[in-house]
Amino acid sequence: MAHAHEAIPTLRVSDAPAAATWYARLGFVEDWRHQHGPGLPWFISVSTPEGATLFLTEHADDCPPRGSVFLVTRDIAAAEAALQASAKAMPWGDRELSVMDPDGNRVRISQPKTPSFSLGSAMLEGRCLCGAVRWTLNQMPLSATACSCTACRRYGTLWAYGWEGEDIHLFGETSAFVRAADLSFNFCPTCGNVSHWWGLKLDEQGRRRVAVNLRLTEPGPIADVPIRHFDGLDTWSSRPEDGKCVKDLWF
């Protein structure tokens, strides 16, 4: 039996869209929402760039009301300001605050004194210009690929590669331009930013290869990532390294 790789707290709420707005104070962004039909209960998923996810449900049989969730943060001061609440020093050295959300769910937020575990696995996040589409990458890429193929040179992208649902997670609805039978280039239908390409076929292990456009993240953290020049026009091979990094090609 395969072991679970993620556990998602589910909170009972009376008005899921309003609850999503309240949790936005804590950095949660709506990923998707579902309703079986007009007038029926909402179910909404929200998450943070660091990888924390909450389900907000209006369905009475999903879970009891007045639940509880424990959140870990690097910046308790930001939570204090957002919630107008004060954190307390705990006997074990952490700083913690506790509040109730509008539906009576208890929300405890803690900043560890000396974390001995990862505070979220996502090291990089990219967002389109309007913010409707985003991606997370769980590790700093070893290189950023600048491809000269007929598509990539027009898009002006810098690619980082991974596997969907493993080290790369995608959020938001996109439009797709299908390139041959192998992949699609996906972009935000509102602002037009290219967010990722998506493999149309799975490998032998059932995994899907994807690449995210690093130009959607902030330049600072990836400034020193080496550029890998790939000749996608003629030879379909990597070109010799020239020592350039992302900061050399950013503008």
End-to-end C-alpha gap: 49 Å
Q: Count the strands?
A: 19
Rg value: 21 Å
Query: What is the tally of helical segments?
Result: 4
Helix and strand run: EHEEEEHEEEEEEHEEEEEEEEH
CATH topology of the largest domain: Metal Binding Protein, Guanine Nucleotide Exchange Factor, Chain A
Poorly predicted regions are 116-121
CATH class annotation of the largest domain: Mainly Beta
Approximate strand percentage: 35-45%
Strand order, biggest sheet? 12-17-16-15-14
Tell me what you see in this structure:
The protein has 251 residues and is mainly β. It folds into two domains: 10-111, 2,3-Dihydroxybiphenyl 1,2-Dioxygenase, domain 1, CATH 3.10.180.10; 124-249, Metal Binding Protein, Guanine Nucleotide Exchange Factor, Chain A (Beta Complex), CATH 2.170.150.70. The protein has four helices and 19 strands. The protein has helices spanning 16-23, 76-83, 152-155, 246-249, and strands at residues 10-12, 29-35, 42-47, 53-57, 68-72, 88-89, 95-100, 106-111, 124-127, 134-137, 144-147, 159-163, 168-171, 175-179, 183-187, 194-202, 208-213, 227-231, 237-238. A five-stranded antiparallel β-sheet has the order 12-17-16-15-14, with no helix packed on it. The radius of gyration is 21 Å and the shape is globular.
Properties at a glance:
251 residues; mainly beta; 2,3-Dihydroxybiphenyl 1,2-Dioxygenase, domain 1; Metal Binding Protein, Guanine Nucleotide Exchange Factor, Chain A; 2 domains; five-stranded antiparallel beta sheet; 19 strands
